[in-house]
Amino acid sequence: MKMFLQEEKLQRRIAELAHLRYKNKRNISTWQVQEDVSKSEKIPPQHCSSKTDMHIGDIWQGRDHYLWLQAEVMLPKECNVCFFDFGKTGGGGNSGFEALLYIDGLPVQGIDSNHKEYSLRPSEVGRKVTLSLKLWSGLEGGGEPRVLTHTLNQAFFGELDHDTNAFYTVSKMLLETYQQLAEDHEVKYQLLGVLTEAWRLVDWRMKGSDAFYESITQAHQYVKEQLHILPKNDVIHVTAIGHTHIDLAWLWRIKHTQEKAIRSFSTVLKLMEEYPEYVFLQSQPQLYQWIKEEAPSLYRQIQSRVKEDRWEVEGAMWVEADCNIPNGESLIRQILYGKKFIREEFGHESTYLWLPDVFGYAWALPQILKKSGIKTFMTTKISWNQYNRMPHDTFMWKGMDGSEVLTHFITTPVPGGRSWTEKSNWFYTYNGTLTPETVLGVYRAYQNKALNQRLLVSYGHGDGGGGVTREMLDNRRHMAEIPGLPQITTGRAGDFFAELHQTVKEKPSHLPLWDGELYLEYHRGTYTSQAYIKRMNRYFEIRLRELEVLYSFQSINQGTDYPHDRLEALWKNVLKNQFHDIIPGSSIAEVYEDYREEAATCLAEITRLQEQLNSSEAPLSLVNTAGWPRQSLVKSNSANSRPQNHLCMGDACYSLHQLAPLERAAYTDSSCILPKEMTASIKGNTVETTFYVLKWNDQGQLIRLFDKEGQKEVFKGKGNVFQLFEDKPINFDAWDIDLFYQEKMTEISGGSLQLKENNPLFAVLTFTASFGQSKISQDIFLYTHTKRIDYVTEVDWQERQQLLKVKFDVNIRATEAVFDVQHGNVKRPTHWNTSWDMAKFETVGHQWADLSQTNYGVALLNNCKYGYDIKGNQMRLSLLKGAIYPDPGADLGLHQFTYSLFPHNGDFVTGKVVEEAWEINAPLSPLQGSGDRVPFTLTSEDAVVVDAFKQAEDKDGWILRCYDHIGADRQFELTYTGEGQILWQETDMMEIPLEALQSGSLVLHLTPYEVKTIKIKVVDHAH
């Protein structure tokens, strides 16, 4: 049979039929043109101002260029389609041309390379209409800016023959099904036979004639009759949910995303008119907020479709956030504000987390989800793993506290087996298409077949690709009738997940459990790229926490207003920029230019809020908002007052203070400590302090650190060694660090180290070095009150495709290191025994990482860095990365940051590593007033992390959120000391009560890594 070339013949015939679907085409050859210089016009011009028209075949060019095209045409009644091919949209919708079509001044649909057709409404034909298109040239898709060139290839209106289109589509689906089915499948050759016989009915003698189209109708009727006869009884069921994955910023700016959303959502709504079965899902309330502000008419149409259960607003988070860099409270706020918006705007309670494209999944997520009313977690990105395939696609994921959440990976293949990681057999996509290959492939790839026979496909082009196409919707309709394929229906993802819960409930023995973090073996460079945004994110998270606590205490004490809306606006800006292509550092330069402007605005607002807390009449005070005692060195600019036991140098005063948990103390309190002896004595290249003997070589590298208290040589090798690595990953420059980076390293030499300052509170060694075109300068602080050594660092970074790390060789033997992560910590191997261990050659950590034996350990702390690698006894922190794509100038310029070495007795708990890391992340500073007292006292044997104290979302009370960070059963007591009394109750993280109100002191029990949320109401004694 193969000698008859049936397959090849059918492919050729089907391709030839594609353009014959259109009849009575009438070209629109001439267009009036006008540039949108403002790049912001939303309404087409009344008359285009350009004196020169554009014609089909003309070229248009630009970068971020907007052009209005306009033509007045008479559309006959028999006309049902317009067609526009005015530019090229890049692969994945990541670059190039996009447009929005208007008819008589009203926006009707997005136009791009995937959406060239517009199906005319009956009200739009039989009359003269004005067609307007707002064209956008697009951007280059990252890299050096360049002008994009597009061509006005084609524009016409005419008739789309529905029988011909249907026959074309079902023929493609039948042939692709035949190609995908196994050789011994019982219907494979029956389908080929039906298709072959149908095409024999097509009369090609007068192509395009009435007789030709009549033969097409007969052929189509034959196919329908034959398919009706063939049984379709496949037990596999696929739910297809339309989707467009819109990155809030990436290879374009946020302003472009707002335009993309308007285009894409216009297309969705238009297709819903034509396909009543079409159901669409869109996550990210931030997108809807923009639509509400920028396109209110479009927003109202979306709300109508939501009420019909055809538009699914879900996903839980405010944006699809990165889950590596944000802290635990940020992840909670993502869901808190996301669910609140969905509930208030659409009357729906979000029940699943939709995160298809983020670069790793915090081990804190299961607890956060469970306590936020989220029952299911979905992703696909884990399939990009570089070395090891996750062993399950449906499983229970257990968090560090023991909470569990049902997790499901969408297993839709990329057609043709293409993938970035070259692991095509397990590379899944969230930008799926609907073809026999994908609906069969989603089950073939699925690893839990004994558990579940119902799968979910998310289909539609992402970003500038405009989402679902007519072709996809037509494909699904026809595939639903073809035997050999799974049952495929449209449906809501929420209904799919509800059915999945029922399925696993009925088969509990088949449901696997994954206990641990979900580490993505890829995109490890995102812990380091674009250092400024990571630094500011850390700063904003901590400052907003502090402001919320202080305003809460002030409001409880004095009855003053709490700036709820202003703080929420600041939080939402932080959350928006935690989107998974902004904070990871994987966007174009303009995104980070915009961020710097936003950050400056936020800083100014934070300053205003801080100043409004102050009272010019009140004395300076210090407030410890942490859940542990602090001994802190405080720096202020109050040198003129020269208070007792303060060390003043120039414009700065330094003082050492001790504060209990949740305590306010006067800044000038005489109880602050000023030692009598100098911190250090120096002899040659050796410095001795109360805690250490420290020695360095001629390169300024530390070659000895002896802990006098612990009688321990801290180093087994050298410390504070800067290493520069060639960093040229295979695929994604800003995203990736590949394992082979270690093959080419330069140790930075030629540095100098000398004593800069020596006083009773601290000594400062200064280090400087140059390398390439860059410079490093450091002030190294040695203290009298703590063993922590701070490296206050400034780097003028001018390197490209280089990775800068700092290394410490420590005298510790441990097979695991502990890393600070959201709501606790995670242990990771320090060896490469297995491919799973080796894959974690660069991992994320927040404020600290610790390598400890039972009796002694060393912690490496930081105030804005996230990339660690610890192997054997070598501890390294990634400082800067010189990526050239998508931003060729990423991170060039001046950087300021602090990291610290903290040797300690015992493990990280005994050594109080968390407390020391807090000192460099949230240093105490004097406040002018801020209330007469802290209205609570905290009693606990061990430190407790107070993650938040803020006004409740209903503005009726206060929310305390705290957690155990050491992995132990705990108890602590919070006692109210203000006016009146308190009533309190535990709530979930969404502030929904879990118990009745109680009175009296608040005694809380915490299990290992448990996060608790408590609502507190202050009432008078008569209550």
Task: Give structural attributes.
1023 residues; alpha+beta; six-stranded antiparallel sheet
Question: Could you describe the 3D structure shown?
Answer:
By secondary structure, the chain is α+β, with helices and mostly antiparallel strands. The strands form 12 sheets. Strands 35-36-37-38-47-44-43-40-41 form a 9-stranded antiparallel β-sheet. A 6-stranded antiparallel β-sheet has the order 3-2-5-10-7-8. A 6-stranded antiparallel β-sheet has the order 34-33-39-46-45-42, with no helix packed on it. The radius of gyration is 32 Å and the shape is elongated. The chain starts with 5 loop residues before the first helix and ends with a strand.
What is this entry, summarized?
This protein has 1023 residues and is an alpha+beta fold. The strands form 12 sheets. Strands 35-36-37-38-47-44-43-40-41 form a 9-stranded antiparallel β-sheet. Strands 3-2-5-10-7-8 form a 6-stranded antiparallel β-sheet. The protein has a 6-stranded antiparallel β-sheet with strand order 34-33-39-46-45-42, with no helix packed on it.
